[in-house]
Specification:
This protein has 526 residues and is of the alpha/beta class. The chain has helices at 2-28, 49-53, 218-222, 224-235, 260-264, 274-283, 298-306, 337-353, 382-399, 423-427, 456-470, 493-505; strands at residues 38-40, 57-60, 70-73, 76-78, 81-83, 86-89, 97-105, 118-126, 132-135, 148-155, 159-162, 165-167, 174-179, 186-191, 197-202, 212-216, 241-247, 287-293, 357-361, 403-409, 432-436, 477-478, 481-483, 511-514. Helix 8 (337-353) runs parallel beside helix 9 and helix 11 packs parallel to helix 12 (493-505).
């Protein structure tokens, strides 16, 4: 009994000593002190909208189980995710202003009641309000090669760029930048210190100057007599522009093009010197519109077919080339990216050489029954694909300094699907449309004109009014092709002048004259 009492007393004494030691250690903080939790993921500076959407605040425990951890933002509990030995909080949305993030991990273990909990906190600021941006309307230019000054105002921005190039900001946020040429779909971006951005796309407008032009083939320009007649009309002030062929109805490129496909397909003819022609005409203050016959291209079609690129060619349902009045293999497939790119490459090359404008002709499908045609790779309606080509070409051509236009059938105003030329849709992507309203090409009774070929004035006036109505609101001009050739009815100065008057009375004071022989009735232009 004595031994037992002594033993119990001894144990109680030892226990008391241990309690005293542990208590004193806890109080003094020598062994129970726990390191604070490590909070990471908060970037330096103010957090913007983009940073907030990707923000991930991470609390490391140093190997301890993070499950019991509580997380708060501005004193309110929020939900985090356990990832290994860390707690991760993704806020997604927070109000602008200063915020306090805090985490607490309670004590754990056998003697947890003797240990302190672990904590960590950080203060951060959110600003998701983007700067304001107001770009002034650009002044109209007469050429895409003209320089232009971009001005405007921003508030709250630390940086402003135009297509990635820095622009100096004034203390009041005003800016002014001189661009070497008219911008086409340039992007102005204002950025604040938090990385918030406001952007605006700008495109300059180019006013199509009055055009009085004649069509000139490559061979005609190379012919001393025909070229001399055209230059004489220019000297007399009868014309202020020339339409000079780049690629004609045979697919022949009139000058020595450096476009690889023009060389490989044998399209290059080197009939005239493009640089010399442009230099001569520009010295006379004559603008030059380069004509590219786009999809009627027997040179490319025949070459592609021989090379096994059969999907470059419009086909019959049975897989043979589509034959038409233009030949057995005449039309390339407007839906094929290589065919489209070839024409765009020719256009941009010509623009870079100095052509003032690019006009696409035969930008259509062959006329005829669609049931007899197959367009490999076409995923939409033909008229949508044709308009889409103009959309693809617009930016490269304008960026190279030229305006873009398209020659269209006169019937396209009333029967767009017969040749896949939807006028309102095409108008969105060109500076002007050039409808071929040749009186000889209209059927009897069109626009209530009994005999259009013998009545050039009313058929031109009425048809052009229809075209102007269809492009209303697009900013696109109408510059028609008028007839200076005889087909069924003899045409001379009076008939050409009557068409010019009909166009003027329809509100159109610009025109191109077409003569396949490149011989013109100049007295009609007086």
């Amino acid at each position: 009994m004595t031994k037992l009492r002594i033993s119990r007393r001894w144990l109680l004494a030892v226990l008391a000593i241990v309690v005293v030691i542990l208590t004193s250690v806890t109080v003094s903080g020598v062994t129970s002190e726990q390191p604070t939790l490590v909070v990471s993921g908060l970037p330096a500076g103010v957090i913007g909208a983009a940073g907030l959407s990707n923000l991930e605040i991470r609390v490391e425990t140093g190997g301890q189980d993070p499950s019991p951890m509580t997380v708060t933002v501005d004193g309110e509990p929020v939900r985090g995710s356990v990832v290994g030995s860390a707690m991760v909080y993704r806020p997604q949305q927070l109000d602008d202003g200063e915020h306090q993030f805090a985490a607490e991990l309670p004590a754990s273990g056998m003697f947890g009641f003797l240990k302190s909990s672990r904590t960590g906190s950080r203060t951060f600021t959110v600003d998701t309000t983007p700067p304001t941006l107001d770009v002034d309307k650009l002044p109209a230019a007469t050429s895409y090669r003209d320089g232009v000054t971009v001005t405007g105002q921003t508030e709250g921005a630390d940086r402003l760029t135009i297509d990635g190039e820095d622009v100096t900001l004034g203390q009041d946020g005003a800016f002014e930048a001189d661009l070497p040429s008219v911008p086409t779909d340039a992007t102005v971006v204002a950025t604040d210190a938090a990385g918030n951005e406001t952007s605006e796309t700008i495109s300059g407008s180019v006013t199509t100057p009055k055009i009085r032009a004649v069509h000139v083939t490559a061979h005609a320009w190379a012919h001393d007599g025909l070229r001399g007649d055209v230059l004489d009309m220019a000297r007399r002030g009868l014309i202020n522009a020339v339409q000079l062929d780049i690629k004609d109805e045979d697919g022949v490129v009139g000058y020595d093009s450096q476009v690889p496909l023009a060389k490989r397909s044998g399209a290059n003819a080197g009939i005239y010197d493009a640089r010399a022609a442009l230099k001569k005409l520009h010295r006379m203050d004559i603008r030059v519109v380069g004509r590219i016959v786009a999809f009627r291209d027997p040179t490319l079609a025949e070459w592609a077919w021989r090379q096994g690129h059969r999907d470059w060619v419009i086909q019959q349902p049975g897989g043979q080339p589509y034959a038409s009045k233009y030949g057995p293999v005449a039309f390339t497939n407007f839906a094929h990216e290589n065919v489209r790119q070839y024409n765009i490459d020719l256009a941009t090359e010509a623009a870079e050489l100095g052509f003032d404008g690019i006009m696409y002709d035969y930008i259509r499908r062959p006329d005829g029954d669609l049931a007899w045609m197959a367009f490999p790779g076409l995923e939409t309606k033909p008229h949508v694909s044709v308009a889409g080509f103009l959309r693809e070409s617009r930016e490269p051509v304008r960026s190279a300094g030229a305006h873009q236009s398209a020659a269209v059938f006169g019937i396209a105003a009333t029967r767009p699907h017969e040749i896949a030329q939807d006028i309102p849709m095409m108008a969105e992507h060109v500076d002007y449309l050039a409808p071929m309203v040749y009186p000889s090409h209209w059927n009897t009774g069109e626009y209530d004109v009994a005999n259009p070929n013998s009545q050039p004035y009313p058929i031109v006036r009425r048809s052009l009014r229809d075209f102007k109505r269809q492009v209303r609101g697009t900013g696109t001009e109408i510059v028609p092709w008028l007839q200076d050739f005889s087909l069924g009815v003899t045409y001379g100065d009076a008939q050409v002048a009557a068409q010019i008057s009909g166009a003027a009375d329809a509100g159109v004071d610009s025109f191109f004259l077409w003569s396949p022989s490149v011989r013109y009735h100049s007295d009609a232009l007086r």
